[in-house]
């Protein structure tokens, strides 16, 4: 890997997933076995149905809760394998049962405790949302860990919502496969949340004016606002060139007794879901543009792009994928 | 790349006047490769339509007018394909002239036959005239020059002369209309096909019209 004078990296072969991993059936099949058939994967937050299901890369995961006990299976066509299931606070993770490999706590490190603490805010669930992208799932992961496309892709949504001097205030932690970025909210945005808090008396896991984004390999991230609202996201591979971004808003309030409070909570949640949908609708075209563009340079030797100071999380992800794909069965 | 591969062949893209104004662009796709021809400060140039930063298609529309700037992170490129506008370069990339040159867009071949503009993915290979043959090249050039005025869409009729070459099919009406249809190259979807009717310079002026595919 060559390093430019200070900040940017041009990855060399072997330090970066081959371009073809973004569209070939062969790579998709390899990921199904080595990544989605082996790693701990976020499944959701149980509700009254005591049932969670997910589909990733052709694998179907079915989880049931009976009291405190959880059990589940992974279906791969006719093949049915048992799941290992564990929790991080309210967040439920599962993997195809196997000997060895990391525990869930090891897989989430060093964010397990923080995720568990934030997941205490998984209250007042809103209906899950799924948005289809005509792009490989990794293009969405790259997009979500890209800390500096706000001004170009989200000029009227995210960009004005974060502090004008976001560059000075952005804090990114990288721990190999997992990472975290936090953004200071603009004064106006923080003020909006403060007013909301005054009305809803939100449950807050921290007294912070941040948008926080915690990524857990391979396809989960938890977005939080104002130390209150939590939005778990999962990127589900559907096909080599198709994926679905699934997310669920939790707007935790301690004041939801009167009809007026319930109506206000409902309308606020609807507004936040619509706003999040608008942001995702802005990301979708650029993810799809990458999906269309990447095959167009794949035949050229040495075209590996360049990763700036705020794009290192993406290279971390590529390297984690390479390790996972190379892991012995 | 074999000589028969789409990437080695010339494809008609548009008319020269489609690229006459500053920032005008026309795009297509050949196989897996998106291409763009663009007027940048008066120079008409062609590149792979893929940003060298993180590989997004730069211009997503079949044609339009706007700077050669990637929608993802705002990288903009000059007529040599070199990135000249890099948001956050001082803090995030610190690319000097040589570093920028290494990240230039990959050039595509561009050639004209009269007012007809052709593109090819491969940088090297036979010239457009060699590929079409001198006779046909001269005929197409003459026709394109003789029918400069866009007009209302017409349907070809029996008895019209038809010329087919590359992805191009021309229908020449005895009464002086030239119908030009460019099929989308292999790998491109139908939005990259174009059909235009032209009339001689002295023909009555009619409404400009361009049929969708």
UniProtKB/TrEMBL annotation, chain A:
Residues 131-326 form the Aromatic-ring-hydroxylating dioxygenase alpha subunit C-terminal domain. Its cofactor is Fe cation. Gene3D superfamilies: Naphthalene 1,2-dioxygenase Alpha Subunit, Chain A, domain 1. SUPFAM superfamilies: Bet v1-like (SSF55961). GO terms for molecular function: 2 iron, 2 sulfur cluster binding; iron ion binding. It holds the Pfam family Ring_hydroxyl_A. Keywords: Plasmid. This is Aromatic-ring-hydroxylating dioxygenase alpha subunit C-terminal domain-containing protein.
From TrEMBL, chain B:
This is Rieske 2Fe-2S domain-containing protein. PROSITE patterns: RIESKE. It holds the Pfam family Rieske. Keywords: 2Fe-2S, Iron, Iron-sulfur, Metal-binding, Oxidoreductase, Plasmid. Residues 11-104 form the Rieske domain. It comes from Azospirillum oryzae. The keyword RNA-binding does not apply. Gene3D superfamilies: Rieske [2Fe-2S] iron-sulphur domain. One of its GO terms (molecular function) is oxidoreductase activity.
């Amino acid at each position: 890997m060559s390093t430019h004078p200070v900040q940017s990296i041009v990855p060399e072969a072997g330090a970066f997933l081959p371009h073809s991993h973004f569209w070939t059936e062969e790579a998709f099949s390899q990921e199904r076995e080595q990544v989605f058939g082996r790693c701990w994967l976020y499944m959701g937050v149980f509700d009254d149905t005591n049932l969670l299901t997910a589909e990733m890369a052709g694998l179907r995961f079915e989880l049931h809760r009976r009291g405190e006990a959880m059990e589940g299976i992974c279906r791969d066509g006719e093949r049915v394998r048992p799941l290992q299931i564990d929790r991080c606070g309210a967040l439920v993770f599962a993997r195809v049962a196997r000997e060895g490999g990391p525990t869930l706590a090891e897989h989430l490190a060093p964010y397990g405790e923080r995720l568990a603490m934030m997941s205490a805010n998984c209250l007042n669930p809103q209906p899950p949302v799924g948005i289809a992208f005509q792009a490989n799932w990794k293009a969405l992961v790259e997009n979500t860990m890209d800390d500096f496309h706000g001004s170009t892709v989200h000029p009227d949504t995210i960009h004005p919502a974060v502090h004008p001097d976001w560059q000075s205030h952005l804090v990114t932690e990288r721990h190999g496969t997992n990472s975290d970025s936090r953004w200071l909210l603009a004064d106006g945005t923080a003020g909006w949340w403060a007013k909301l808090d005054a009305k809803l008396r939100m449950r807050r896991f921290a007294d912070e004016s941040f948008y926080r984004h915690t990524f857990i390999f391979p396809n989960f991230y938890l977005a939080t606002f104002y130390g209150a609202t939590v939005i778990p996201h999962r990127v589900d591979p559907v096909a080599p060139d198709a994926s679905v971004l699934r997310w669920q808003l939790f707007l935790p309030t301690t004041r939801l007794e009167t009809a007026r409070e319930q109506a206000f909570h409902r309308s606020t949640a609807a507004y936040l879901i619509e706003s999040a949908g608008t942001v995702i609708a802005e990301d979708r075209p650029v993810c799809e543009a990458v999906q269309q563009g990447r095959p167009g340079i794949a035949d050229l030797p040495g075209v590996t792009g360049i990763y700036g100071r705020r794009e290192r999380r993406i290279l971390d992800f590529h390297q984690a994928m390479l390790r996972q794909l190379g892991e012995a069965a | 790349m074999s000589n028969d591969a789409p990437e080695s062949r010339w494809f008609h893209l548009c008319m020269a006047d489609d690229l006459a104004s500053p920032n005008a662009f026309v795009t297509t796709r050949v196989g897996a490769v998106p291409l763009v021809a663009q007027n940048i400060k008066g120079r008409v140039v062609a590149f792979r339509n893929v940003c060298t930063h993180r590989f997004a298609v730069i211009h997503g529309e079949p044609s339009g007018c706007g700077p050669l700037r990637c929608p993802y992170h705002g990288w903009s490129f000059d007529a040599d394909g070199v990135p000249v506008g890099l948001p956050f370069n001082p803090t995030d990339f610190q690319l000097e002239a040589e570093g920028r040159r290494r990240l230039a867009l990959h050039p595509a071949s561009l050639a004209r036959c009269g007012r007809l503009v052709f593109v090819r993915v491969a940088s090297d290979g036979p010239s457009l005239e060699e590929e079409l043959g001198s006779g046909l090249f001269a005929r197409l050039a003459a026709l394109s020059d003789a029918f400069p005025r866009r007009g209302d869409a017409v349907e070809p009729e029996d008895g019209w002369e038809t010329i087919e070459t590359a992805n191009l099919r021309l229908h020449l009406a005895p009464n002086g209309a030239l119908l030009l249809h460019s099929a989308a190259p292999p790998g491109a979807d139908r939005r990259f096909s174009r059909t235009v009717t032209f009339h001689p310079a002295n023909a009555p002026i009619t409404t400009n019209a361009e049929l969708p595919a």
